[in-house]
Amino acid sequence: MKRNIQLIILSALLIFFTQCRKNEAQPEPEPAPVNPSNPTDGMLKLGEVYMQNANAKAVLYTPKDLVTGYNTIYAAIYDSSNGSKLLNGHFEVLPSMNMGSGMSHGCPFENYEDSVPDNGLFSCAVVFSMEGNAQQWNLDFGFHNHQNEKFGNGKLGVNVLASSPSRLIKTVLSSDSNSTVMIALLQPGSAKVGINDLELVMYKKKDDFSYLPVTDYNIEIEPNMPSMGHGSPNNVNPVHSENGHYKGKVNFTMTGLWQIKLKLYRNGTLISSDQYFEITL
Amino acid sequence: MRRYSLILILFLQHRSWSQQKDQDSALKTVHLQEVSIYDENSRMNQSFSFYRNNKLATTEDILSRMQGVNLIKRGAYGLEPTLRNYGSGQTNLTIDGMRMYGACTDKMDPVSIYIEPNNLKSIQVSQGAAGALDGSTIGGQINMRTREPEFNCHPIMSGQASTSYLSVNQGLNSSLSLEQTLGKVAYRLSGTYRHANDYKAGSDSLIPHSGYEKANTSVCIVFKTSERQNFKLDYLGDWGHNIGYPALPMDVGKATAGIYALTHRYAIKGKALSSNEFKAYYNSVYHQMDDTHRPESPMHMDMPGWSQTIGAYNELRGKHDLKLRIDFHQAYTKADMTMYPKNEPLMYLQTLPENTLNDFGFAAGRSFHFKQHQQIDLNLRVDYFSQSAFYGPGANQWKVFNQDVTQAKTNFLKNMNLAYSGNLGKHTGAQFSMGYGERIPTSNERYGFYLYNRQDQFDYLGNPDLKPERSLQAELLVKEQFKWAEFSLNLFYHHVYDYIYAYQLEGYSQMTIGAKGLKTYRNIEYADNRGFEASLKLNLGDYFSYLGNAKFVYAQTYDGKPLPLVPPFKLQEALRCTYKLYQFQLEHDFGAAQNRVNSDYGDKVTPSFNLINLRASRNIPIRKCILQVALACENVFDLLYHEHLDIGGVPRFGRNVLCNISLVF
Question: Is the sign of the CA dihedral B635, B637, B640, B642 positive or negative?
Answer without folding.
Answer: negative
